[in-house]
Structures are given as C-alpha cells and as structure tokens.
Design goal:
This protein has 324 residues and is α/β, with parallel strands linked by helices. It has two domains: 53 residues, no CATH class; 256 residues, 3-Layer(aba) Sandwich (Alkaline Phosphatase, subunit A), CATH 3.40.720. It is built from twelve helices and nine strands. A seven-stranded mixed sheet has the order 2-9-8-1-7-3-4, sandwiched between helices. A two-stranded antiparallel sheet has the order 5-6. Helix 4 packs across helix 11 and helix 8 runs parallel beside helix 11.
Length: 324
C-alpha cells in the first residue's frame, strides 16, 4: 500500500495532476477571481498574467512599524484547549492570557493549510495553498521565487527574514526551501548543542533561548518565523522537570480518560508548548517593550482530543492571535 501511495504521489507530481483542477482553465479562473475581488479595482495589469492577479492591497489602519515581528507556529497547537469550555484544564494558560489582553486580537475561525506540518510550512514560506502537490518537492521551487512567497514581500517593507526551526535542516528540505524562496537566514537544532531532545530535534525551550540571544544582538528590523517540534511523538520532554501539574489535570479530565497515561503525556506536551511560547513572549516584551509584534498559531490540529468524537470545529481549528 505504501509503495502504491508513493507511486501515485510521484505520478501526480510529474504530470501536474490535481483532481478537479484543469491546467487549461487556470488563466480563465484567475481572471474570474480578479474581476470579482477588490484587487481588480486596484490594478490595470494584463489579466492573462497570473502573477498580476495575485496582488492584493490590504485594507485597514497603518500601524507604527515594529522593530521585530515574531510568527510562532506551535507544533500540533490546536485551538480547543484555549476555548472557554476547556479552560479548567489549564493547558494553555499562557497563550489564553495573551489572547485576553487589550492589545491582542484573536479569531476562533481559523483553519490550518492542511492536515500535516509540511503543508503549513509550505504555505507560510511560499504562499501557495495545499493542492496535494508539495512545492518543497518541486524542481521549479529552487529555480525561482514564487510571486506569492512571504519573504520577498516582507523585505519590501524593510525587514530581514529569518526562519527558526527546533528540528533539523534536512526535514522536508526545509532549509533549502526557505532560502530558495527568499529567507535571508535559517537557524535550527542542527546548528547548536542542546541538553535534551529527540529524533525530531531539540526541546522547544532551547531554540527559543537561542532566538532570544539573536534578538539581543540584532538591531535590524526582522521578521522571525519560528516552528516548534516538542508537541509531537515520541513526546519525550521531561514534563515533571518542566513543572507539568499532571495529577491536577488528571482530576479535571472526564472519568473515562483519567487513567489514560498516554493522553496525559500528550496533554502535558501541549502544556509545555504553551509554557515555552508564553515565556518567550513575556521575556521579549519585558526586555523590549512596545517594539515588537507577535503572531501565534498552530501548524495543524487533529492529533490529541479528550473526546472520542470531538466536533469538527474542536478537532481541526487552530488559534490565530496577533498581539503587540
């Protein structure tokens, strides 16, 4: 079965086959979208050019330029532990506290770009939605920068771009892909010594510690994209050392899952991710008040729930918080 799936994916990649999408209709579809959006009124480019129709001018207030912008993508950082109905578990207290501040905005209605981390990373790096063909596997992605790519647009606003990953540079060619699509720098667990981690990389706290050192010596306006790894199997963080209140959480769980040690371990790793993110935001904000902007989200959900049959909303949504 696995061999068949690999063959099928390889065939689709080679032939540009996407179910429901016909290559001969792409220009026609792009023209339709452009003519029916605000972007059409803002541009006079030839509608036969795909790139020109991907341009969109954002509406809204123009804020003061921040020194640094941190886009934090928590591994498997689902939204449901942040919802009021699960607040008593106290798994996401740090991020919940950020959400509730006056200078934060938060939407419940936010979906990941796909079911797995590569789809989320691809979308953030190159701006392309998931259509079952990974851009990071495509030869063209290493020949030119896509018009939708994130880093070149940020550079036009006067920012450097850095990608920070708690894992290793070879995973999904993440380093090569980020640099090929315009990021100025890439940093990951491969670059540093760290006291604890697993097959995926270092424990998240250590990459955030390295990032804080970088921020301390960086005077240039920079956008940092940060991807964590610890909230993922094999779930190896020393939670007792980190301070996870396991028995308190156990007592608040539904009776039918209170003795599920595997579930408790997974919930503890969510708690750890929340703690690391919260500590980082607090440290940066304390050291550099009013100079920074934070965006906090998750790459995907659908890995851990306490119900056997969660609602679709609870199962799949991720948070989107903008704070600063």
């Amino acid at each position: 079965m696995l061999v068949f799936l690999r063959y099928s994916i390889k065939k689709r990649i080679d032939n540009g086959m996407i179910y429901g999408v016909h290559k001969e209709n792409i220009i026609q579809n792009v023209e339709f979208l452009a003519k029916n959006s605000d972007a059409y009124r803002l541009q006079k480019q030839d509608l036969s050019q795909i790139d020109s129709n991907l341009v969109y001018q954002a509406h809204g207030n123009i804020i003061d330029k921040k020194q640094h912008i941190f886009i934090i993508i928590g591994e498997s950082f689902a939204q449901w532990p942040l919802l009021d109905e699960y607040a008593n578990l106290q798994l996401g207290e740090n991020v919940r506290a950020i959400m509730q501040k006056d200078n934060a905005t938060y939407t419940h209605n936010f979906m990941p770009n796909g079911a797995f981390t590569p789809m989320a990373v691809n979308a953030i790096i190159c701006g392309l939605s998931d259509v079952n063909i990974y851009p990071n596997h495509q030869y063209e992605s290493y020949k030119q920068v896509y018009a939708t790519s994130f880093a070149p647009q940020i550079k036009k606003l006067g920012y450097k771009t850095q990608f920070w990953y708690a894992g290793f540079s070879g995973w999904e060619r993440i380093k090569d892909f980020a640099l090929a699509q315009g990021f100025d720098e890439f940093h990951c667990a491969s670059d540093y010594q760290y006291p604890s981690g697993n097959v995926w990389g270092c424990d998240d706290e250590f990459i955030f510690d390295k990032l804080k050192q970088e921020v301390a010596q960086n005077d240039e306006p920079t956008v940092y994209v940060i991807l964590s790894v610890s909230n993922h199997a094999p779930y190896s963080v020393d939670l007792a050392k980190a301070g996870f209140p396991k028995e308190e959480v156990r007592a608040k769980l539904p009776a039918d899952v209170q003795n599920n040690e595997d579930l408790l371990n997974k919930l503890g790793h969510y708690w750890y991710t929340d703690k690391v993110i919260g500590n980082f935001v607090e440290d940066i904000e304390t050291t550099y008040p009013k100079e920074n902007l934070f965006v906090i989200t998750g790459d995907h959900a659908d890995r851990t729930n306490i119900e056997a049959k969660p609602t679709l909303f609870n199962r799949y949504t991720v948070p989107c918080i903008i704070y600063g």
